[in-house]
Design goal:
Layout (H helix, E strand, L loop, with lengths): L1 E2 L5 E4 L6 E8 L15 E2 L4 E4 L3 E9 L2
Antiparallel strand pairs: 1-6, 2-5, 3-4, 3-6
Length: 65
């Protein structure tokens, strides 16, 4: 998701039964927190993901646990 607006925006995330979304990249975070190492990704709660102004977020979809 790319947010080129200067304020945070909420993006809808499709809910898929038996699967979960995890945040891999968030360019609004300071390094090294901007890129998650495999296995340390943060799960997205609910069906929206907030993206800070002028930043990019990359999600990955995996089987739920």
């Amino acid at each position: 998701m790319m947010n080129m607006y200067w304020e945070s925006l909420d993006f809808d995330v499709p809910q898929i039964a038996g699967r979960r979304w995890s945040k891999v990249v968030d360019t609004a975070q300071a390094p090294p927190a901007d890129f998650a190492e495999p296995g340390t990704e943060t799960d997205v709660a609910g069906n929206t993901c907030t993206v800070a102004g002028r930043s990019v977020v990359v999600l990955v979809n995996r089987a739920g646990s």
